Amino acid sequence: MKTHGTLARWSACLAASLLATACGGPSEEQKEDPPAPVVCASENNPFADKVVSFTPGESAGFGQDGYPDVVLGPPHGGGSGMGSLDVLSLGRGGEIVLELTDIGVVDGPGVDLLVFENPFGNFMETGIVAVSEDGQSWHTFPCNATDWANGSPGCAGVKSVFSSPDNGISPTDPSVAGGDGFDLATLGVARARFVRIQDTGENSYGFTSGGFDLDALAVVNGSPICEWK
Question: pTM (2 decimals)?
């Protein structure tokens, strides 16, 4: 016959069986799994790596024969007097979402991200830039597309592009690369892996080269993207 003390110990042992076997060490099922390793991207590519989606608007078409490569990789700037033809026209209200898989944008000193279009002289076509860490929740930079007198502040597609693979001008140095700079601090965002660009609807349209013409984007301040495996 079990004594009260023996029953108490047996009951306690039974209650603890979720964590231990026979009041000893944990069972195989109860052992905690070892922590999953963190794997960081080994590439050092500051440019867009993947197109998540592209929704062309009216008068889009130019550059689609080279899509998606035409918007991936470095910019092909033509300087202040000539716009690049290595671009993808979004069309009226068209939208493209790009993903960074090697280096994510982080909030650092000054400009964190550069977006390159193909403006030249006094001709420009503007786009609205937004960023996201998960591709679902977006943060949009203010863009005043109709304030032409002040250079459509906050919009992409305003400043000429000088960096190109064949001229040695760094595409990640805002002081020489050209393009339009964006600072995550403006939005209170610490990090982003996705960039969305939308034509403002305030540009020139017609034929197949209407609207914002995307050349490339480049991470200025960034860190490797790491994931649990």
Answer: 0.82
